[in-house]
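Re: weekly structure request thread

Next one in the queue (406 aa):
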Amino acid sequence: MARVGALDTSAAQLGAEDRPGRPDVSLVICTLNESESIGSVLDETKAVFEGLTYEILVVDDSPDERTADVVRAHAAADARVRLVRREGARGLASACIAGWDAAHGKILGVMDGDGQHDTQLARQMVEMLQAGGADIAVASRFAPGAHTGLSGMRKAMSTVATPVIQLLIGARCTDPLAGFFFQTRRWYEGARDGLTGIGFKILVDVLASGPRRPTVVEVPTSLRARIGGESKLDLRIAVELVAQLIEKKSRGLIPSRFVMFAGVGGLGMVVHLMVLSGVKGFAALPFLVAQGCAIAVAMVSNYTLNNLITFRDLRLKGLAWWRGLVGFALACASGAVISEIVGFGLTKIHVHWLIAGGAGALTAAMWNYWSASRAAWGVPPRGRDVAAGVAVKTAPAPEASAETTP
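Done, posted below.
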């Protein structure tokens, strides 16, 4: 079972859904530089949950304390608001998991902190799950009667990706990319071991990681204008989503991080050949010198891209970046030796040279992924261990009690 900082996420610790004293609902709000909006979102949410026992956990990954300070002010006035500050990690999916692991509610939810999600729908989704018969309640931008509120790249990505995801994971959900949803604790506990914690599309992970196909209920929604903060969508999110789908479709046999690592490796081969051609052809240097230059440039390129894409939730900066580069170079150098040994050994038993070379390259790729994950970024190579070693600071949970005025 993966761990997040010092938080024990075992099923025994999480407990049964109906354990006495649990609040009705725990809502996780993930923030990144949203000091302008989080105060209003908290006020709206508390009003919507009137009459329920609840807790709101704000998981903040902001580089400064402005967002956290706003949350601290709310927490000082209302013990049901809790701040979770993470150090050494980034990414919406892992932030959601950190919040749910720290939560105590019978129903677990997530929404953004920028004000785009319609908080009035939260109560409706909670009541749908309390009625029984469903595992997950989603505020869908594609349900009948909904208007997405999306435009540009976000609309194009959702329109193209949604039917593909539905086909690949068999999800009976009109909006598997939604960021506003609730789930029963029972479903979360059953899915927890399979969650990758990678990327920003956590609902795909939740839908595809349970022991069976979940029963999903939906409410139509439209995104509101953002109060503060900015969109986190970029090309890397699309890459992460593709890698996540490959992991789910392979039933975890091919980790999503390995997919991204291998993709970067393929680009590195292109960089290597381009540098080799340039140095050998235009500078007229000896082959060994040109090859050495190409290897060095490709290795730095691969490390940089992996730091930005494959391990962007644990991105290294400053002196740590240079230490990581050394670890990455050593890991990949040993991979090159392994590739040579495997390839040469296969040719000696009369395996075709092309197959032998491919087997050596594949073996080296798996070794490089395993060893570089540890040597450079200090984490196990499995995607679901994304949050291992992350420092988490959170206030004690409030006692469950009926709604009262602070």
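The chain has two domains: 11-244+387-394, 256-381. Residues 337 and 384 are 29 Å apart (CA to CA).
Next request, please.
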